[in-house]
């Protein structure tokens, strides 16, 4: 639709830490071979489409994903610290199957996970506030434009709830989010509408 504000959210590609079943957070890792292949497919999908601006979390995995897409749409990604994944403190780098931050890991590790998050990680209210603030700042700069953000699992959970007017505090329950999956929202009469959610059809060939 012409003269409407549209926001495209793309999750970053698979990394070597994801294949190693490790907790990311602010800890970074290079894209895996499969991740690079998915980046190229995503870039090919958007090639020739009109996108006005391209932003990404300033973390390396999101920036690298955005750079590959940006080459296809002839835009340089703008890094944004407020779009970074949650900082998990001393949980970062640990095994997901034992120390899953959402509390779904083994029961005997949960007290350690909760205490470590509280003492060394980013509090959820701070995370939600910075992500929404950063996204609203971007939207305000680009009214009636089509803007792409390359972000992370947790950020997708927060923003998908926020744009649908749902409980943002439930962000950890939302997902799974496909690596290089596409979600798209459009502002119509002051309200956001979902055009698609976690679409990975472009990755299948």
Automatic annotation (TrEMBL):
UniProt binding sites for substrate: 61, 85-88
One Pfam family here: His_Phos_1
GO molecular function, one term: phosphatase activity
Active site: 12, 85
Gene Ontology cellular component list: cytoplasm
PANTHER family named among the record's database cross-references: BROAD-SPECIFICITY PHOSPHATASE YOR283W-RELATED, HISTIDINE PHOSPHATASE FAMILY PROTEIN-RELATED
Protein name as annotated: Phosphoglycerate mutase
Native organism: Pelolinea submarina
